[in-house]
Design goal:
Elements: H1 7-23, H2 44-55, H3 74-86, H4 94-106, H5 109-120, E1 126-129, E2 145-149, E3 152-159, E4 170-176, E5 187-193, E6 199-205, E7 211-223, E8 227-228, H6 234-249, H7 253-268, E9 270-271, E10 274-275, H8 280-308, H9 314-339, H10 357-368, H11 375-386
Parallel strand pairs: 1-4
Antiparallel strand pairs: 2-3, 3-7, 4-5, 5-8, 6-7, 9-10
Helix pairs in contact: 1-3, 3-7, 4-5, 4-6, 6-9, 7-8, 7-9, 8-9, 9-10, 9-11
This protein binds flavin-adenine dinucleotide.
């Protein structure tokens, strides 16, 4: 079995590492260790870094050249996100990982031409507007309405948990264009400027400190070409886009980075005159976690590779999402155990071990169990679509 990346991917990785050494040097690397996707993204360093990524061509992997894209597939995207996470560098992957590929595939040409070049240059960001108070796991129950009125759609409703809506430029909104007996039908997708009249945004903080938002959409008008895909095609596009989102959530690189921090702590810290690493119980738990991390890494690479060859299914993205998020929770639970009372110090406290990142990771790990689709629901998808079993719940 050959675990080596193909030549072009290895070349891409070494070119990227050189780029990161300059654009996100080691003294910046503490920034956003675990939850780089959503923390501090509106800061100046994060914005200039994103533009630098865009100028260097890293935001258009697999997209057509005419929109600022460059050749590459899922394996390249996996390497990009892994290297960014390993370097603690920030990136909101929503626009490049979810929106741009869907716009290229399903968007009306005028809208795609208007938006995708800005995404690949790192100038435009998106927030996702799927979830509502009564439509989370059961997303098809969403009530936001879009009504065609001449050459415009008029959209009204309320979304919750919209990450980054307060700093993004556009909103990727699922809305009902038709009432049907089957609730999965009649849903369509729209791109809505977040500064449009009728949009109001208020904060909704999560236990890890990450801000999400409630977005009120009050008779917001968008031109017809802001509909992505045909009317009623939204459910299928959301499904495809969610695979991309799970791929981002499941990144194993931040877990590897956190594991190294825990290992380093166990190497240096002593308890009752003994190094933590020399404690049998601590060492054996580290070995178990190490094996699980190696398995998750290999699984990630395998699925990325399989996706490029058309061999991975959406149940594989679900399986990896469950594997990595539960591993993240197991690692951070262990980390807080070995850190003892100091483990409760938050990143704001100078005395916090590992800059408080392990404490923050613990709080964030719980959340990743249901963002991008609850793990219980993922298990059901794996059972039905991966293993051919009946519905589990
Ligand atoms: C930090 C954060 C960021 C988010 N970002 C976004 C975003 O940017 N855009 C967006 O649209 N949404 C976002 N979400 C929403 C997220 O996708 C939902 O939280 C998720 O889909 C679960 O929906 P819910 O919270 O309504 O939980 P519910 O659907 O109420 O589910 C609660 C729990 O019930 C169980 N459950 C529910 N249904 C089933 C079932 N069929 N089978 C088995 N068990 C089940 C699961 O254990 C689940 O965790 C975010 C959420 C958080 C916390």
């Amino acid at each position: 079995m050959d675990f080596t990346f193909p030549e072009d991917v290895r070349h891409f990785r070494s070119e990227l590492r050189n780029f990161l050494d300059k654009a996100w040097p080691p003294d910046m690397r503490r920034f956003a260790m675990n939850d780089s996707v959503v923390r501090d993204l509106d800061s100046d360093p994060a914005t200039s870094f994103k533009r630098a990524l865009g100028r260097a061509g890293y935001l258009g992997i697999g997209l057509p050249q005419e929109y600022g894209g460059r050749p590459g597939g899922t394996l390249h995207r996996f390497v990009l996100q892994s290297e960014l996470a390993a370097a603690g560098a920030p990136l909101n992957a929503t626009a490049i990982g979810i929106v741009a590929p869907m716009l290229v595939r399903y968007g009306q040409e005028s809208l795609t031409r208007q938006l995708v070049p800005g995404i690949t240059r790192g100038e435009l960001d998106f927030a996702l507007g799927y979830t509502e108070s009564n439509a989370g796991s059961d997303l098809a129950s969403l009530q936001t309405q879009a009504r065609l009125d001449g050459d415009r759609y008029v959209i009204s409703g309320e979304k919750v948990f919209s990450t980054a809506a307060h700093i993004a430029d556009y909103y990727w909104v699922a809305a009902r264009t038709e009432k049907t007996d089957k609730k999965h039908q009649g849903i369509s997708l729209f791109v809505v400027p977040l500064d449009a009249p009728g949009i109001s945004i208020s904060p909704l903080y999560t236990m890890s400190g990450i801000r999400t938002n409630v977005v009120h959409i009050d008779n917001v008008e968008v031109p017809v070409d802001h509909r992505v895909g045909d009317e009623g095609e939204g459910w299928r596009i959301i499904g495809e886009a969610l695979d991309g989102e799970r791929f981002a959530v499941m990144m194993v690189a931040p877990v590897i980075r956190a594991y190294q921090a825990v290992l380093e702590y166990c190497r240096c810290a002593t308890r009752a005159g003994k190094r933590l690493l020399d404690d049998h119980a601590v060492a054996s738990e580290l070995v178990v976690l190490h094996s699980a991390i190696v398995a998750a890494y290999l699984n990630s690479v395998g699925i990325a590779w399989g996706t490029d060859r058309g061999e991975s299914g959406s149940h594989d993205a679900s399986a990896l999402k469950v594997e990595v998020t539960e591993l993240r929770l197991a690692l951070s639970t262990f980390a807080l155990d070995v850190l003892g009372t100091h483990g409760q110090l938050t990143p704001e406290d100078k005395a916090a071990p590992a800059f408080g990142e392990l404490e923050r990771m613990y709080r964030h790990a719980v959340i990743t169990l249901f963002t991008g689709g609850a793990n219980a629901v993922q298990r059901d998808l794996i059972a039905r679509h991966g293993l051919g079993l009946g519905r589990q719940m």
